[in-house]
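Predict structure. Chain length: 119.
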Amino acid sequence: MSRRLLTVAALALAVAAGIAWALSLDYLSDDTFISFRYARNLARGDGLVFNPSERVEGYTNFLEVVVLAGLYRLGADLVRAGRSLSLASGAASSSRGPSPVRVSAAGPPSRSSRRASWR
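Prediction complete.
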């Protein structure tokens, strides 16, 4: 089996294990519900606000709020959509990192290159 195929298989296994673990936790933080409220108000036409009468920015994830607002507008449940979006983005981002095989095959950086990078 080729090294690339082994890397892809290991990555797929790690992503599947991560998704299974995340689903088993069944956890949502309070910050998630803040994003849901901003998304719901945006989808209802009240703007990007927590309370319609206040203009305060209190979200930390603009793209997620906007995507969730669009999904809510299409009729999606915010909790299910938020979990699905979180799992999908986590799986996608894990496949975009540096290859562990490539990093370990290159070996640790030499002492002189580490010194040169700090200059």
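Summary: The first helix runs from residue 3 to 25.
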